Amino acid sequence: MEASTGTGTGTGTGTAAASTGQGGKAPVTRGRRPAWLPWIAGGVAVLACLGLQSQLYSGQERTVTTVFMFVTLAVGWNLIGGFTGYACFGQVGFFGLGAYSTVVLMVHGGLSFWVAWPVSAVVAAVFAAVIGLPLLRLKGHYFAVATLGVAEGLRELVTNIPRWTGGGAGITIPSTGGEAPTPWLGNDGFYLLFLGLGAVAALVAALISRGRTGYALRAINQDEDAAAAMGVNTTWAKTVAFGVSAALTGAAGSAYAFQQVTIYPDRLFDVNITVLMVVMVVIGGSGTVTGPILGALGIAVVSEYLRQHFPQMHSFTLGVLIIVAVILLPQGLVNFVRDALRTRDFSLLSNVRRYRL
């Protein structure tokens, strides 16, 4: 019969081909993983982070807190840059907008941080939706440059209204005494705050990825015109991704401002923050849920190790390692592992030839 020859089509093809013993690698048949497995793994990871807190020194706790913040930022950028394929180079603008929204609400409005925090995330999301209507009509480097211009414009705006933002001299949130709208949370409090924010960001990304919006975003990434022709509301999908991405980034900026107490526009709108987001997503695996998380963890661990053992060569060595990682894993770690498990080929050289040559 046709299926027994290993040359036919249909469900029997893979099994027959695997049993032919002919040259070449037989395809590997793998069962689908249980749908609940990623949720269990995520819950275990959060519990592990909670257990880790008591084992950390003060400096280590602050470092891990920063890692949680960058997990949130990387996951947020991945929604628009990874899933949708719109590389936003001005993502730090939402980070700064969330931070200064919180400062204005707490310093001038006297609001509690727990009120200012979600409001700041909404402000960032609404701002992204408004500017996204014209900007998301652009593609490629035009969109990237336009968003970078928006971030620079926000930095200039904040710098030039010192009455509300303190301008270039910075502004301080009252964190102690009777003038403090909300007492400073301390290292333990901010550890839990950023851990919770990172977990929420990962949950949001997972829900979007598995839903209709996620499929729409991937279709846009592959071929936006074809997606529109198939009935996908591309404008709505892109705006939702941009807004949710901005909300997560703004929430992280809001919490960061409260943690730092005193903030400055040059630090909050530093383009290097966006660069780190992009690098973490690219190395971890663009367009995946776990990729940005692993990328953030990997970059943070390597960076901290180099900072402690090779302080004079920290930046240079980290840059070289990032370049090597991008060359060897152009599709990111998660996508490499996924491809390797499917093909049973774990060779990095084969991976480079597949994607680079």
Automatic annotation (TrEMBL):
Claim: Cell membrane is one of the keywords in the record: yes
Question: What transmembrane ranges does the database entry give?
Answer: 35-52, 64-83, 89-107, 114-136, 189-208, 275-302, 314-337
Domain of life per record? Bacteria
CDD domains, per database record: TM_PBP1_LivM_like
Q: What is its main location?
A: membrane
Name the segments for region: Disordered. Answer: 1-29
Supply the InterPro entries for this chain: ABC_transp_permease, LivM-like
Q: How is this protein situated with respect to the membrane?
A: Multi-pass membrane protein
Give GO terms: molecular function aspect only.
branched-chain amino acid transmembrane transporter activity
Tell me one Pfam family matched here.
BPD_transp_2
Q: Which GO terms describe its cellular component?
A: plasma membrane
PANTHER family referenced in this protein's UniProt entry, alphabetically = HIGH-AFFINITY BRANCHED-CHAIN AMINO ACID TRANSPORT PROTEIN BRAE, HIGH-AFFINITY BRANCHED-CHAIN AMINO ACID TRANSPORT SYSTEM PERMEASE
Q: What is this protein called?
A: Branched-chain amino acid ABC transporter permease
